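Side project, low priority. Logging it here so it doesn't get lost.
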Amino acid sequence: MEALRTPDDRFVNLPGWPYAPQYTTIASGVSGDSTTLRIAHIDEGPRDSAATVLCMHGEPSWSYLYRKMIPVFVAAGHRVVAPDLIGFGRSDKPVERSDY
């Protein structure tokens, strides 16, 4: 599997987006393929919060969609996790459509 990675400089100075990305690396899931894919997410707010808000974007979007909601949830004392699904935002993007 071949995957593309959007350069980090494409995400510099995004309005309303002061969040540092975190990354998780996973196996591609294709039998016999040693390719790994990087999934980006942000994790804001108190880790010991009684509630965690998971912000899942749709297609075609990425976690930036929630830029106005994240600070509201955090101000209310919640932890917020917002991943970029494979193929979107800061996450890796498989080249072949069949790899999705």
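Brief comment: Helices lie at 70-75.
Revisit when time allows.
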